Structures are given as C-alpha cells and as structure tokens.
Amino acid sequence: MNNSIGNNVRKYRELRGYSQEYMAEKMDITQSAYGKIEKENVKITIDRLQRISEILEVDLGNLINSKNQNIFNLYNNQTANGYIENQYNEMKSTYEKIISDKDDEIKFLRELLKEK
C-alpha cells in the first residue's frame, strides 16, 4: 500500500491534522468504516472518494495518482517541520515559565528588602 489510494488518503488526512474520527463524522460513517477505506479493506466508490477529496480540499486526481511523490515529500517535510515547531514551542513555554518564576521571586525579594 505504498502509493495506493488508501495511503494517499491517509497522508493527506495527516497533513491536514484530521483524525479518522473527524473524517468519519464528516462522511457520516463510523470510524471503523473510514479506517477500512484507508486500509483498502473495502472497495471505495467514486462518490465517497469525491467526498474525501472535498473534506481534505485536495484534487481527486491527487488521491488516485499512484505515483504521487509530491505529497510524500510534503508529508515528510511537514512532519519534520511540525516536530521542530513543537519542540520550539515547548522550549519557549518552559523558558517563559522560568522567567515568570524569576520575576515573581525578584518581586518577593524586593518586598522583603523594603520591609527591613
């Protein structure tokens, strides 16, 4: 299933940050039924594939194209960039908390000095 329709659908879904549950809800089917589409355990109708392309905002041809290398490059880049961005945001949040704690400590110590 390397460059199959189901794999293409999964990659585009992940690029959008959508869960299988979200997709299933939008398609008015169960998550299990949607999962079978990505795993290609069921035959998918063109109508259902068209609905998926609408939800994912991607051209139907991109979902069908078995040689669609561009999405895999985009997927790999966004995955790496997303990881780096998440790491950056976590570090920024940690440093902001440290700075805030230090500011509180400085304020407390200044108040103690004023009392003496």
Q: Would you spell out the secondary-structure blueprint of this structure?
A:
Blueprint: H1 5-16, H2 20-27, H3 31-39, H4 46-56, H5 60-64, H6 69-115
Helix pairs in contact: 1-6, 2-3
Written overview of the protein:
With about 120 residues, the protein is mainly alpha-helical. It has a domain at about 1-65: 434 Repressor (Amino-terminal Domain) (Orthogonal Bundle). The protein is about 80% helix and about 0% strand. The protein has six helices and no strands. It has helices at about 5-15, 20-25, 30-40, 45-55, 60-65, 70-115. Helix 1 (about 5-15) runs parallel beside helix 6 and helix 2 (about 20-25) crosses helix 3 (about 30-40). The chain is rod-shaped, with a radius of gyration of 23 Å. The model has no long low-confidence stretch (mean pLDDT about 85).
Defining key terms:
rod-shaped; 116 residues; 434 Repressor (Amino-terminal Domain); mainly alpha; 6 helices
How would you sum up this structure in a few lines?
Helices cover 79% and strands 0% of the residues. It is mainly α.
